[in-house]
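name: query_chain
kind: protein
chains: 1
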Amino acid sequence: MQDSILAGFKAHLTGGILNGTAFSLLAFFGKALTLSQAGVIFILGSVAGLLPDLDHDTGKPVTLLFQILSVLIPAILFWRAAKYGGDSPEFIVLYFALSYVFVRYVVCYGINKLSAHRGMMHSIPFALLCGLLGYLFFISSGTDVALIVGISILSGCMVHLVLDELHSFTLKYGFIPNLKRSSGTALKIKANTLGTTLIVYVLILLVAVAILFSLS
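structure:
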């Protein structure tokens, strides 16, 4: 008889929520950030626990994740768009409607077509990329907010990867470890294809340069 160590989506969701809770409490009590800032950190830290599963192409969990990102990404970028379009009710409705459709049906479709399950999105470099993007998007809110957002997203992705590795073996007779084929496919630093690996590392470099320019 073999018993699985951890469940899939529920374990990742729980891990993400615990991660988001920890960093939001740190932000509120440790860094004296506002309640709204701590709330955003909780949301992003929790969602980060699901991000590596973007490379799934089917199932309700990944559909839910895409729907969440279709709201979160436009919301995060709204302040930039408002500089050009203003904040009138007409622009806000148009912006969020078009952004939702674009992220949900264009960006997510592209991710499904270009990614492979347990590919580069299940890797340490992808977790780092997500963390750097979080820092970059929130740098206008101050370095304290940006740093906690970035670390909470990186940590949430890493929690996901660690849970995947823990789930990559079963126990025979309740105590003998038995490795699955998926063992070692989450905590990696490169994909099976050189092109995919290079894309992620180039993106990390570009985001890091953008952060340096923002700080200068």
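note: Residues 60-85 form the longest helix (26 residues).
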